[in-house]
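<tokenise_the_fold>
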Amino acid sequence: MAVAAPRPPANKWLVTLSVTFGTLMGTIDTSIVNVALPQIRGQLGATLQEITWISTGYVIAQVIVMPLTGFLGRMFGQKNVYMFCLALFLVGSVMCGLAQSLPMLVAFRAIQGLGAGALQPTEQAILRQTFSAKEQGMAMALFALAVMLGPAIGPTLGGYIVDHYHWSWIFFINIPVGILGLYMVATFVPEPEDIRAANRLAAAQQRKHMDWLGMALLVVGLVAFQYLLEEGQADDWFESDLILGCAFVALVSLIAFVIRELTAPMPVVNLSLFKDPVFLSGSLIGAVMFAMLMGGMFLLPVFMQELLGFTATQSGIAMMPRVAVMFVATPIVGKIYSRVDPRVIIACGVGFFGAGAYLMSHFTLETPQSEIIVAIMVQGVGFSCLFVPLTTTALNNVPRHKLADATGLNSLMRQIGGSVGLAIFTTVLSRYGVVARSALTAHMDPSRPEVQARLLAIQSALMQRGMDLNAARTGATASLLGVVMRQSTVIAFEQLFLLTGISFLAVLPILVFLKRGGLPDPKAKVHVEIE
């Protein structure tokens, strides 16, 4: 059935600005709360293990909603879903700021996450439907700025708020911005008539064949899998019966979900989109990219704070040059996207990321802040070269009325990739540290002349400060062991930084499948056939 071509929006830049508010707030809130956890923990009287649920609950709720974005858009309208989810996010923000206990805060963070989950994929779909084929690179560059800058800005903004105000303001700050976003979406964002008509036809069929089983399997599988990733390291992975049980439930549920979706008359999630090798390869590379991005966002602040003595605010400020570079580089990449093969741009991005990882693998306790900034700026250029062509090319073959389904799956792959990356990096960092400590400790034989000389020097210094002989000997040994611990941690970070660069090179062969094709115009007529 042919549906009339949509009217062009009044102003595509106002549309972009309107829908970016929600996405930016959602991505910032993924990381902003982390720097406030110590203060929240002290006020609510929570243990270190319990307090992590403030972040875990938010991420799990996000992951549940992302793949359902297309389904929700068909049932209730794409614009309505965006506005409802943004309003839900704001309600969750207010409730989080007013929470008086940990269970309340975790529950309200989950409400926030449910609202934030649909914002990112819905914005991506709206931008794809708003901009013409030649402007798709610029559209996705603007989307990339919101998605990538949020996790970078979050810790710095959160650190400033926690240092100067009560922790509740990391949630209350969303309210004026979100209200402005709601007003702008209601005023400036049209819902194309062809998309509305296609959604009405699909919704009629969806109501006749509601895929409740598929929805249940998806929720159970993603919750179990995300819990495994978020809590696995703390629970020693498969040494824990709970983590082992989550792995089993996730595996069985997700396999059953895939079977169900490929056989259901009207699946709740359109997995058939992965039959397109361009969409599949773009989504896979995007998942790997986010694994590296989130890993870097985690590793660098830990390195700077625990080994170089930076405060949370200082480490956040040190990360800001990456943000500045991405602000400059991302629009440039979006501009040249239509003129250069996206595989060339992505390969350059992988190269920049690898170069940055190589520079980081040479960090030491004496590394000045200027060298850290150079390395993260190089990686910032790399991420700009990666995100724009990946999010643009991956969706090129997707029909206009299926964009919401595709962006939901694409966002899910990025989110899962980021969670997997964090889980792997935290585990590998711990194990590299153990191996490095064992190697260094083997050379700490007290009978070795150089070890004796170092111990005597420390012992002498301690005795000059007033310690007796026995206390000075004990202190010298403890001091030397402390040096070993710090150096082994540095070695672990160096090895892990290098591993991220080498691992990312593995995506290069996948670029063969990432062909741009003929750049179909996303503003063209929609032809929908519903049986």
